[in-house]
Description:
Its EC number is 2.7.2.3. Pfam families: PGK. The protein has helices at about 35-50, 75-85, 95-105, 120-125, 135-145, 150-160, 175-180, 195-210, 225-235, 245-255, 270-280, 320-335, 355-370, 380-385, 400-410, 415-420, and strands at about 15, 50-55, 85-90, 110, 165, 190, 215-220, 240, 255-260, 285, 290-295, 305, 310, 315-320, 335-340, 370-375, 395. By secondary structure, it is of the alpha/beta class. The longest helix is centred in the first third of the chain and has 15 residues, at about 35-50.
Amino acid sequence: MISIDNYDFKGKRAIIRVDFNVPLNEKGEVTDDTRIRAAMPTVKKVLAGGGSVILMSHMGRPKKNPDPKYSLEQIVPAVEKNLGVKVEFAGDCIGEKAAEMAKALKPGQVMLLENLRFYAEEEGKPRGLAEDATKEEKDAAKKALKEGPQKEFVQKLASYADCYINDAFGTAHRKHASTYLIAKKFPNDKMFGYLMEKEVKAISSLMEAPAHPFCAIIGGSKVSSKIGVIKALIEKVDSIVIGGGMTYTFAAAQGGKVGDSICEPDMFSVALEILELAKKKGVELVMSPDALVADAFSEDANTKEAPANDIPDGWEGLDIGSKGKKLFRDHILSCKTILWNGPVGVFEIDKFATGSKEVALAIAEATKKGAYSLIGGGDSVACINKFGLADQVSYISTGGGALLEYIEFGDLPGVAAIRE
Protein backbone atom coordinates (compact mmCIF):
# COMPACT_ATOMS: atom_id res chain seq x y z
CA MET A 1 0.00 0.00 0.00
CA ILE A 2 1.30 3.48 -0.94
CA SER A 3 2.13 5.86 1.90
CA ILE A 4 1.73 9.61 1.75
CA ASP A 5 5.32 9.83 3.03
CA ASN A 6 6.89 8.06 0.07
CA TYR A 7 4.63 9.26 -2.76
CA ASP A 8 6.08 11.77 -5.25
CA PHE A 9 3.61 14.68 -5.50
CA LYS A 10 5.81 16.83 -7.75
CA GLY A 11 3.70 18.37 -10.50
CA LYS A 12 0.68 16.26 -9.51
CA ARG A 13 -2.85 17.24 -8.55
CA ALA A 14 -4.14 15.46 -5.46
CA ILE A 15 -7.86 15.25 -4.77
CA ILE A 16 -8.29 14.96 -0.99
CA ARG A 17 -11.50 13.86 0.74
CA VAL A 18 -11.55 15.82 3.99
CA ASP A 19 -14.21 16.13 6.68
CA PHE A 20 -15.04 19.84 6.81
CA ASN A 21 -18.50 19.23 8.26
CA VAL A 22 -17.92 21.97 10.83
CA PRO A 23 -20.37 23.97 12.98
CA LEU A 24 -21.32 27.45 11.78
CA ASN A 25 -23.00 30.35 13.57
CA GLU A 26 -25.91 32.38 12.15
CA LYS A 27 -23.41 34.56 10.25
CA GLY A 28 -21.96 31.50 8.51
CA GLU A 29 -18.71 31.68 10.50
CA VAL A 30 -16.92 28.52 11.68
CA THR A 31 -17.31 28.17 15.47
CA ASP A 32 -15.05 25.13 15.88
CA ASP A 33 -12.26 24.55 13.33
CA THR A 34 -10.95 21.31 14.88
CA ARG A 35 -11.72 19.25 11.77
CA ILE A 36 -10.14 21.82 9.46
CA ARG A 37 -6.98 21.95 11.58
CA ALA A 38 -6.84 18.14 11.64
CA ALA A 39 -6.59 17.98 7.83
CA MET A 40 -3.82 20.57 7.46
CA PRO A 41 -0.75 18.27 7.83
CA THR A 42 -1.94 16.21 4.84
CA VAL A 43 -2.62 19.26 2.65
CA LYS A 44 0.70 20.83 3.60
CA LYS A 45 2.56 17.59 2.81
CA VAL A 46 1.22 17.59 -0.77
CA LEU A 47 2.05 21.27 -1.28
CA ALA A 48 5.55 20.87 0.20
CA GLY A 49 6.12 17.98 -2.22
CA GLY A 50 5.44 20.20 -5.22
CA GLY A 51 1.83 19.20 -5.79
CA SER A 52 -1.49 21.06 -5.95
CA VAL A 53 -4.63 20.23 -3.99
CA ILE A 54 -8.35 19.81 -4.73
CA LEU A 55 -10.30 19.61 -1.46
CA MET A 56 -13.74 17.96 -1.31
CA SER A 57 -16.11 17.52 1.62
CA HIS A 58 -19.74 17.33 2.64
CA MET A 59 -21.52 19.60 5.12
CA GLY A 60 -24.80 18.84 6.86
CA ARG A 61 -27.73 17.13 5.12
CA PRO A 62 -28.85 19.49 2.34
CA LYS A 63 -32.01 18.50 0.51
CA LYS A 64 -31.53 20.78 -2.49
CA ASN A 65 -28.81 22.03 -4.80
CA PRO A 66 -27.67 24.65 -4.13
CA ASP A 67 -28.53 25.43 -0.51
CA PRO A 68 -26.67 28.54 0.74
CA LYS A 69 -27.05 27.36 4.35
CA TYR A 70 -24.74 24.42 3.59
CA SER A 71 -22.38 26.04 1.08
CA LEU A 72 -18.70 25.36 1.70
CA GLU A 73 -17.91 28.86 0.47
CA GLN A 74 -18.58 29.93 4.08
CA ILE A 75 -15.57 27.98 5.37
CA VAL A 76 -12.99 29.33 2.87
CA PRO A 77 -11.68 32.01 5.32
CA ALA A 78 -11.18 29.38 8.06
CA VAL A 79 -9.32 27.04 5.66
CA GLU A 80 -7.11 29.87 4.40
CA LYS A 81 -6.34 30.97 7.96
CA ASN A 82 -5.20 27.49 8.97
CA LEU A 83 -3.35 26.73 5.75
CA GLY A 84 -1.69 30.08 5.16
CA VAL A 85 -2.41 29.73 1.43
CA LYS A 86 -5.13 31.28 -0.75
CA VAL A 87 -7.97 28.82 -1.41
CA GLU A 88 -9.95 29.15 -4.65
CA PHE A 89 -13.62 28.18 -4.39
CA ALA A 90 -15.09 26.27 -7.33
CA GLY A 91 -18.77 27.10 -6.73
CA ASP A 92 -19.74 23.54 -7.72
CA CYS A 93 -18.19 20.11 -7.54
CA ILE A 94 -18.79 18.71 -11.02
CA GLY A 95 -19.52 21.73 -13.23
CA GLU A 96 -17.38 23.02 -16.11
CA LYS A 97 -15.86 25.76 -13.93
CA ALA A 98 -14.65 23.19 -11.39
CA ALA A 99 -13.06 21.09 -14.16
CA GLU A 100 -11.35 24.12 -15.70
CA MET A 101 -10.05 25.33 -12.32
CA ALA A 102 -8.66 21.88 -11.52
CA LYS A 103 -6.95 21.66 -14.90
CA ALA A 104 -5.35 25.10 -14.43
CA LEU A 105 -4.00 24.36 -10.92
CA LYS A 106 -0.29 25.01 -10.52
CA PRO A 107 2.02 23.48 -7.86
CA GLY A 108 1.33 25.06 -4.48
CA GLN A 109 -2.24 26.04 -5.31
CA VAL A 110 -5.40 24.86 -3.51
CA MET A 111 -9.04 24.79 -4.55
CA LEU A 112 -12.17 23.74 -2.67
CA LEU A 113 -15.14 22.06 -4.34
CA GLU A 114 -18.71 22.86 -3.33
CA ASN A 115 -20.62 20.59 -0.91
CA LEU A 116 -20.66 17.06 -2.36
CA ARG A 117 -24.08 16.37 -0.84
CA PHE A 118 -25.71 18.96 -3.06
CA TYR A 119 -25.83 15.97 -5.41
CA ALA A 120 -27.82 12.81 -4.62
CA GLU A 121 -25.06 10.90 -6.44
CA GLU A 122 -22.64 11.42 -3.53
CA GLU A 123 -24.63 9.24 -1.11
CA GLY A 124 -26.36 7.17 -3.78
CA LYS A 125 -29.76 8.07 -2.31
CA PRO A 126 -32.42 9.14 -4.83
CA ARG A 127 -34.28 12.37 -4.09
CA GLY A 128 -37.73 13.53 -5.08
CA LEU A 129 -39.44 10.17 -4.56
CA ALA A 130 -43.09 10.27 -3.56
CA GLU A 131 -43.62 9.85 0.20
CA ASP A 132 -45.76 6.78 -0.43
CA ALA A 133 -43.23 5.17 -2.81
CA THR A 134 -43.02 1.39 -2.40
CA LYS A 135 -39.83 -0.45 -1.50
CA GLU A 136 -39.64 -1.74 -5.09
CA GLU A 137 -39.87 1.83 -6.44
CA LYS A 138 -37.18 3.03 -4.02
CA ASP A 139 -34.88 0.13 -4.92
CA ALA A 140 -35.39 0.74 -8.65
CA ALA A 141 -34.61 4.46 -8.24
CA LYS A 142 -31.48 3.68 -6.22
CA LYS A 143 -30.32 1.15 -8.86
CA ALA A 144 -30.91 3.64 -11.70
CA LEU A 145 -28.97 6.35 -9.82
CA LYS A 146 -26.00 4.05 -9.17
CA GLU A 147 -25.85 2.64 -12.68
CA GLY A 148 -25.91 6.03 -14.43
CA PRO A 149 -25.57 9.43 -12.73
CA GLN A 150 -23.43 8.19 -9.82
CA LYS A 151 -20.88 6.60 -12.17
CA GLU A 152 -20.62 9.89 -14.08
CA PHE A 153 -20.30 11.84 -10.82
CA VAL A 154 -17.38 9.67 -9.67
CA GLN A 155 -15.73 9.85 -13.08
CA LYS A 156 -15.88 13.66 -13.11
CA LEU A 157 -14.40 13.98 -9.62
CA ALA A 158 -11.62 11.52 -10.48
CA SER A 159 -10.83 13.36 -13.73
CA TYR A 160 -9.57 16.40 -11.80
CA ALA A 161 -6.56 14.67 -10.26
CA ASP A 162 -3.57 12.36 -10.59
CA CYS A 163 -3.93 10.80 -7.14
CA TYR A 164 -6.54 10.36 -4.40
CA ILE A 165 -6.11 10.80 -0.66
CA ASN A 166 -8.78 9.90 1.90
CA ASP A 167 -8.33 11.87 5.11
CA ALA A 168 -11.97 11.78 6.28
CA PHE A 169 -12.22 9.02 8.87
CA GLY A 170 -15.57 10.32 10.10
CA THR A 171 -17.20 9.27 6.80
CA ALA A 172 -15.14 6.13 6.11
CA HIS A 173 -18.03 3.87 7.15
CA ARG A 174 -20.09 5.02 4.17
CA LYS A 175 -19.88 3.59 0.64
CA HIS A 176 -20.21 7.08 -0.80
CA ALA A 177 -18.89 8.33 -4.13
CA SER A 178 -16.09 10.43 -2.59
CA THR A 179 -15.01 7.98 0.12
CA TYR A 180 -15.31 4.58 -1.56
CA LEU A 181 -16.14 4.56 -5.27
CA ILE A 182 -13.56 7.16 -6.33
CA ALA A 183 -10.70 5.15 -4.78
CA LYS A 184 -11.26 2.48 -7.43
CA LYS A 185 -10.39 5.06 -10.12
CA PHE A 186 -6.86 5.36 -8.71
CA PRO A 187 -5.65 1.73 -8.41
CA ASN A 188 -1.97 2.71 -8.09
CA ASP A 189 -2.27 6.26 -6.76
CA LYS A 190 -4.44 6.20 -3.62
CA MET A 191 -3.46 6.55 0.01
CA PHE A 192 -4.53 7.54 3.52
CA GLY A 193 -3.95 11.08 4.70
CA TYR A 194 -2.16 11.57 8.04
CA LEU A 195 -5.38 11.86 10.04
CA MET A 196 -6.87 8.70 8.53
CA GLU A 197 -3.60 6.84 9.03
CA LYS A 198 -3.51 7.85 12.71
CA GLU A 199 -7.13 6.80 13.24
CA VAL A 200 -6.65 3.40 11.62
CA LYS A 201 -3.48 2.73 13.64
CA ALA A 202 -5.03 3.85 16.94
CA ILE A 203 -8.18 1.75 16.57
CA SER A 204 -6.35 -1.28 15.15
CA SER A 205 -3.93 -1.34 18.09
CA LEU A 206 -6.82 -0.90 20.52
CA MET A 207 -8.73 -3.86 19.09
CA GLU A 208 -5.83 -6.14 18.15
CA ALA A 209 -3.37 -5.86 21.04
CA PRO A 210 -4.90 -4.06 24.05
CA ALA A 211 -3.33 -4.24 27.50
CA HIS A 212 -5.68 -5.87 30.01
CA PRO A 213 -7.87 -5.24 31.91
CA PHE A 214 -9.63 -3.64 28.91
CA CYS A 215 -12.77 -1.64 29.69
CA ALA A 216 -15.25 -0.03 27.31
CA ILE A 217 -17.51 2.74 28.59
CA ILE A 218 -20.61 2.89 26.41
CA GLY A 219 -23.11 5.67 26.99
CA GLY A 220 -25.91 7.21 24.99
CA SER A 221 -29.65 7.08 25.17
CA LYS A 222 -30.62 3.96 23.24
CA VAL A 223 -29.69 0.29 23.38
CA SER A 224 -30.97 -0.06 19.80
CA SER A 225 -28.17 2.13 18.42
CA LYS A 226 -25.41 0.28 20.30
CA ILE A 227 -26.44 -3.41 20.09
CA GLY A 228 -23.89 -4.36 17.44
CA VAL A 229 -20.96 -2.63 19.07
CA ILE A 230 -21.78 -3.97 22.55
CA LYS A 231 -21.93 -7.53 21.20
CA ALA A 232 -18.64 -7.04 19.31
CA LEU A 233 -16.96 -5.59 22.42
CA ILE A 234 -18.06 -8.53 24.57
CA GLU A 235 -15.69 -10.61 22.41
CA LYS A 236 -12.76 -8.25 23.11
CA VAL A 237 -13.01 -6.59 26.52
CA ASP A 238 -12.92 -7.60 30.17
CA SER A 239 -15.71 -5.22 31.19
CA ILE A 240 -18.28 -2.81 29.80
CA VAL A 241 -19.48 0.19 31.78
CA ILE A 242 -23.00 1.02 30.61
CA GLY A 243 -24.28 4.55 31.18
CA GLY A 244 -26.76 7.06 29.84
CA GLY A 245 -30.37 6.33 28.95
CA MET A 246 -29.50 2.73 28.09
CA THR A 247 -29.23 2.02 31.81
CA TYR A 248 -33.01 2.26 32.24
CA THR A 249 -33.78 -0.20 29.45
CA PHE A 250 -31.49 -2.73 31.17
CA ALA A 251 -33.05 -1.96 34.59
CA ALA A 252 -36.65 -2.27 33.31
CA ALA A 253 -35.83 -5.46 31.37
CA GLN A 254 -34.87 -7.04 34.72
CA GLY A 255 -38.12 -5.96 36.37
CA GLY A 256 -37.04 -2.58 37.71
CA LYS A 257 -39.14 0.60 37.90
CA VAL A 258 -37.73 3.47 35.85
CA GLY A 259 -40.42 6.16 36.21
CA ASP A 260 -40.43 8.52 33.23
CA SER A 261 -36.85 7.71 32.20
CA ILE A 262 -36.03 7.04 28.55
CA CYS A 263 -36.70 3.36 27.95
CA GLU A 264 -37.10 0.97 24.99
CA PRO A 265 -39.51 -1.84 25.94
CA ASP A 266 -39.00 -3.44 22.51
CA MET A 267 -35.32 -3.86 23.44
CA PHE A 268 -35.93 -5.80 26.69
CA SER A 269 -35.19 -9.16 25.07
CA VAL A 270 -31.98 -7.74 23.52
CA ALA A 271 -30.88 -6.30 26.87
CA LEU A 272 -31.42 -9.69 28.55
CA GLU A 273 -29.57 -11.39 25.69
CA ILE A 274 -26.60 -9.02 26.20
CA LEU A 275 -26.59 -9.74 29.95
CA GLU A 276 -26.58 -13.48 29.25
CA LEU A 277 -23.87 -13.21 26.58
CA ALA A 278 -21.63 -11.17 28.88
CA LYS A 279 -22.10 -13.71 31.67
CA LYS A 280 -21.26 -16.57 29.31
CA LYS A 281 -18.07 -14.82 28.11
CA GLY A 282 -17.01 -13.78 31.61
CA VAL A 283 -17.32 -10.07 30.79
CA GLU A 284 -18.37 -7.83 33.66
CA LEU A 285 -21.21 -5.39 32.90
CA VAL A 286 -20.91 -2.40 35.22
CA MET A 287 -24.00 -0.24 35.75
CA SER A 288 -24.70 2.53 38.22
CA PRO A 289 -26.81 1.33 41.17
CA ASP A 290 -28.29 4.82 41.55
CA ALA A 291 -29.40 7.74 39.41
CA LEU A 292 -29.73 11.49 39.70
CA VAL A 293 -33.41 11.91 38.85
CA ALA A 294 -35.36 15.03 37.92
CA ASP A 295 -39.03 15.98 37.67
CA ALA A 296 -38.40 17.69 34.30
CA PHE A 297 -35.82 17.68 31.50
CA SER A 298 -34.52 21.10 32.49
CA GLU A 299 -31.75 23.00 34.27
CA ASP A 300 -34.43 24.30 36.66
CA ALA A 301 -35.84 20.87 37.53
CA ASN A 302 -36.04 19.54 41.07
CA THR A 303 -33.57 16.69 41.56
CA LYS A 304 -32.88 13.87 44.01
CA GLU A 305 -31.10 10.52 43.99
CA ALA A 306 -32.92 7.20 43.63
CA PRO A 307 -32.00 3.55 42.98
CA ALA A 308 -31.61 3.12 39.18
CA ASN A 309 -34.18 0.31 39.30
CA ASP A 310 -36.69 2.07 41.56
CA ILE A 311 -37.41 5.54 40.12
CA PRO A 312 -40.77 7.07 41.13
CA ASP A 313 -43.38 7.96 38.51
CA GLY A 314 -43.04 11.56 37.34
CA TRP A 315 -39.23 11.44 37.70
CA GLU A 316 -36.59 10.54 35.10
CA GLY A 317 -32.95 9.50 35.39
CA LEU A 318 -30.67 12.09 33.78
CA ASP A 319 -27.28 11.22 35.30
CA ILE A 320 -25.59 8.62 37.49
CA GLY A 321 -25.81 9.05 41.25
CA SER A 322 -23.13 9.28 43.97
CA LYS A 323 -22.66 5.50 44.28
CA GLY A 324 -22.39 5.22 40.49
CA LYS A 325 -19.71 7.90 40.35
CA LYS A 326 -17.56 6.09 42.88
CA LEU A 327 -18.16 2.69 41.25
CA PHE A 328 -17.29 3.96 37.75
CA ARG A 329 -14.22 5.85 38.98
CA ASP A 330 -12.80 2.87 40.90
CA HIS A 331 -13.45 0.56 37.97
CA ILE A 332 -11.82 2.87 35.39
CA LEU A 333 -8.74 3.30 37.58
CA SER A 334 -8.30 -0.49 37.69
CA CYS A 335 -8.01 -0.74 33.86
CA LYS A 336 -5.03 -0.61 31.49
CA THR A 337 -6.99 0.07 28.27
CA ILE A 338 -10.07 2.30 28.17
CA LEU A 339 -12.44 3.06 25.31
CA TRP A 340 -15.08 5.74 25.90
CA ASN A 341 -18.03 6.25 23.58
CA GLY A 342 -21.02 8.18 24.86
CA PRO A 343 -21.65 10.31 27.98
CA VAL A 344 -23.27 8.74 31.06
CA GLY A 345 -25.76 11.57 31.58
CA VAL A 346 -27.27 14.61 29.88
CA PHE A 347 -23.91 16.41 29.92
CA GLU A 348 -25.21 19.39 27.89
CA ILE A 349 -27.06 20.54 31.04
CA ASP A 350 -24.46 21.32 33.75
CA LYS A 351 -26.65 19.93 36.52
CA PHE A 352 -26.56 16.51 34.85
CA ALA A 353 -22.93 16.62 33.64
CA THR A 354 -21.24 15.65 36.90
CA GLY A 355 -21.29 11.89 36.17
CA SER A 356 -19.70 12.33 32.76
CA LYS A 357 -17.15 14.71 34.29
CA GLU A 358 -16.25 12.10 36.91
CA VAL A 359 -15.75 9.53 34.13
CA ALA A 360 -13.56 11.97 32.17
CA LEU A 361 -11.45 12.78 35.26
CA ALA A 362 -11.01 9.09 36.06
CA ILE A 363 -9.91 8.34 32.47
CA ALA A 364 -7.40 11.22 32.61
CA GLU A 365 -6.05 9.92 35.94
CA ALA A 366 -5.81 6.33 34.65
CA THR A 367 -3.97 7.61 31.54
CA LYS A 368 -1.51 9.50 33.73
CA LYS A 369 -0.82 6.21 35.54
CA GLY A 370 -0.02 4.44 32.25
CA ALA A 371 -3.36 3.27 30.82
CA TYR A 372 -4.12 3.73 27.11
CA SER A 373 -7.33 5.71 26.56
CA LEU A 374 -9.24 6.29 23.34
CA ILE A 375 -12.19 8.68 23.24
CA GLY A 376 -14.52 8.48 20.24
CA GLY A 377 -17.90 9.78 19.16
CA GLY A 378 -19.09 13.37 18.94
CA ASP A 379 -20.66 13.57 22.39
CA SER A 380 -17.72 11.95 24.20
CA VAL A 381 -15.30 14.28 22.43
CA ALA A 382 -17.53 17.26 23.31
CA CYS A 383 -17.48 16.01 26.92
CA ILE A 384 -13.71 15.71 27.16
CA ASN A 385 -13.36 19.17 25.59
CA LYS A 386 -16.01 20.69 27.87
CA PHE A 387 -14.05 19.54 30.94
CA GLY A 388 -10.69 20.69 29.50
CA LEU A 389 -9.16 17.22 29.56
CA ALA A 390 -8.46 16.61 25.85
CA ASP A 391 -4.70 16.78 26.37
CA GLN A 392 -4.82 14.26 29.22
CA VAL A 393 -6.03 11.20 27.28
CA SER A 394 -4.11 9.04 24.80
CA TYR A 395 -6.13 9.54 21.63
CA ILE A 396 -9.29 11.34 20.52
CA SER A 397 -10.96 9.87 17.44
CA THR A 398 -12.71 12.13 14.93
CA GLY A 399 -15.19 9.39 14.04
CA GLY A 400 -18.37 8.47 15.90
CA GLY A 401 -20.30 6.10 13.66
CA ALA A 402 -17.07 5.17 11.86
CA LEU A 403 -15.36 4.21 15.10
CA LEU A 404 -18.28 2.05 16.23
CA GLU A 405 -18.58 0.30 12.86
CA TYR A 406 -14.83 -0.33 12.75
CA ILE A 407 -15.10 -2.03 16.16
CA GLU A 408 -18.22 -3.94 15.12
CA PHE A 409 -17.11 -5.14 11.68
CA GLY A 410 -13.31 -4.98 11.87
CA ASP A 411 -13.02 -2.74 8.79
CA LEU A 412 -14.68 0.15 6.97
CA PRO A 413 -15.51 0.63 3.27
CA GLY A 414 -13.39 3.80 3.02
CA VAL A 415 -10.42 2.04 4.64
CA ALA A 416 -10.79 -1.15 2.59
CA ALA A 417 -11.04 0.86 -0.66
CA ILE A 418 -7.54 2.30 -0.06
CA ARG A 419 -6.05 -1.04 0.96
CA GLU A 420 -7.45 -2.95 -2.04
